[in-house]
Amino acid sequence: MNSPQPFQVIIQEQETGCGLASVANLVGRSYAEVKAVANSLGIYAEDQALWSDTDYVRRLLKHFGMRCSEDETPFIDWKALPDLALLATKYHEENGKYFWHWVAFKRIDGKPFVLDSASYLAENLRTDFENIQPKWFIEILSLGNFKCQESQST
Helices H, strands E: what count in the chain? Predict the structure, then answer.
């Protein structure tokens, strides 16, 4: 029997929507809502630049009232991460251009979680850190007026 999850993970609804879903996971909004805001800002999941540029997610975070670090910080180990961050995983190079998969990292009551929006995963709330290899992260400095999306107990 699985224990209750501390929050629900937003799943990306487009193959290329990991950046949108990761922002949704941080701001506690639905994928559709974040996608609509992104589209209004000229940001589209279909744009492969979303996989290789941090400006898009930074603009979305700012729109939702969140502040983040100005620079990317190299990943050292899981204990060194801040309580909230966007992680660049599955980092690779194609034709001289770098790409990655965005995931959200949250530490709640001292316990770390990765919220991985990939629809093919059996479990999107991940604690199998040995299988996740971040290259770097963007620290989330403030949540603005938004709370983490938490699951409702019945």
Answer: 3, 7
Summarize pLDDT for 83-139 with one digit per residue, the tens: 999 999 999 998 888 999 999 999 988 999 999 999 999 999 999 999 999 999 999
Alpha helices in the chain (DSSP H): 18-27, 31-40, 55-63
Six-digit token string for 9: 């993970």
Report the relative pairing of strands 125-126 and 84-94 from DSSP bridges.
Answer: unpaired
Tokens of 30: 């639905």
CA-nearest of 68, 81, 69 to 143 is 68
Query: How remote is the C-alpha of 91 from its chain's centroid?
Result: 14
The structure tokens listed for 3 are 């224990």
* Largest Cα–Cα separation, the chain: 50
CB atoms inside a 10 Å sphere around CB 89: 20
Query: pLDDT tens for residues 39-76?
Result: 999 999 888 777 788 999 999 999 999 999 999 999 99
Residue environment code for 2-12, b if the CB has 16+ CB neighbours within 10 A, otherwise e: eeeeebebbbb
